[in-house]
């Protein structure tokens, strides 16, 4: 990867490109790469943000699952209360 403008300009000049043109090309290349390529730090930050979002989604899913399981248990309990023979309690449903 291009590390700095000077090294690129020197390489272009060594390839018989005039120094002002070499510097202009090096500047354009460096600016284009610098402004449009993710760095390792950018990727690390993105990884951290994604992990946090995944944890939040996982928490929400588990919370909803637990709620639905409790609701299902409550409805089953209401439909067939313990200690009551089946069919003796009439439901309002």
Name the descriptors.
mainly alpha; 3 helices; 93 residues; 2 domains
Describe, in plain words, how this protein is organized in 3D.
73% of the residues lie in helices and 0% in strands. It folds into two domains: 37 residues, no CATH class; 43 residues. It has three helices and no strands. By secondary structure, the chain is mainly alpha-helical. Helix 1 packs across helix 2.
Q: Helices, strands, pairings?
A:
Blueprint: H1 5-14, H2 19-36, H3 40-79
Helix pairs in contact: 1-2
Task: Output the number of helix runs.
Answer: 3
Structural class: mainly alpha
Radius of gyration from the alpha-carbon trace, in angstroms? 33 Å
Strand content: under 5%
Q: Number of folding domains?
A: 2
How far apart, in Å, are the first and last alpha carbons? 70 Å
Which percent range fits the helix content? over 70%
3D shape:
rod-shaped
Mean pLDDT, to the nearest integer, reads 86
Order of helices and strands: HHH
Let me know the number of strands.
0
Biggest sheet architecture: none
Low-confidence stretches: none
